[in-house]
Design brief:
The chain is an all-alpha fold. The protein is built from nine helices and no strands.
């Protein structure tokens, strides 16, 4: 019995080590590139393909969390998941992984923004979207997405103005900015 337990433990350790080999890493990268190419060819993202590419992104990030590509792959997984209402909540959870695992990475700010955007656009949850946009603006007021967050937050908070009036207002603001 002891020998069997030892063999099982040794096999588990070897399988963990195998996932860290350069061959495994190269295989994962090749799989991701192939799935991305397949995604680019597709007219619409097939749910099965979305599931496969998301799994590949997250497997790579889980296997190589210190790799510079890991936060990008996690973010890409979030993007794929948020594209469909059925998986959008999982996308929010994946964006949260970027924020928690890589808080200093530039994609952390984008992930906060995308959480708000997903609540707003996919679920129509203005309360959560507003909280996310507000948090984004508190944490990253100079980020390139800050103007977008301000505009989206204003749209949520200002329901009295029509969309056409809002577009006219933006056009006037743009004219004023270009004059300066």
């Amino acid at each position: 019995m002891r020998h069997l337990l030892f063999l099982l433990l040794a096999a588990a350790l070897l399988s963990c080590q195998r996932n860290k080999t350069p061959d495994f890493k190269e295989t994962q990268m090749a799989m991701i590139k192939g799935l991305e190419a397949e995604t680019m060819k597709a007219e619409a993202l097939d749910p099965a393909l979305a599931k496969r590419i998301t799994k590949a992104y997250l497997t790579y990030a889980d296997s190589f969390p210190a790799d510079s590509a890991a936060p990008y792959y996690i973010s890409k997984a979030g993007d794929v998941l948020k594209a469909r209402r059925e998986t959008a909540l999982k996308g929010i959870n994946v964006y949260n992984r970027v924020i928690k695992q890589y808080p200093e990475h530039p994609l952390a700010a984008r992930s906060v923004f995308m959480i708000g955007f997903t609540f707003d656009e996919v679920f129509g949850d203005e309360t959560r979207a507003s909280k996310s946009y507000s948090y984004f603006l508190e944490q990253y007021p100079e980020h390139t997405l800050a103007d977008d967050a301000r505009a989206l937050l204003a749209m949520i908070q200002d329901t009295a103005i029509s969309d056409l009036e809002r577009v006219k207002q933006w056009a006037e603001e743009d004219k004023e900015k270009t004059k300066k």
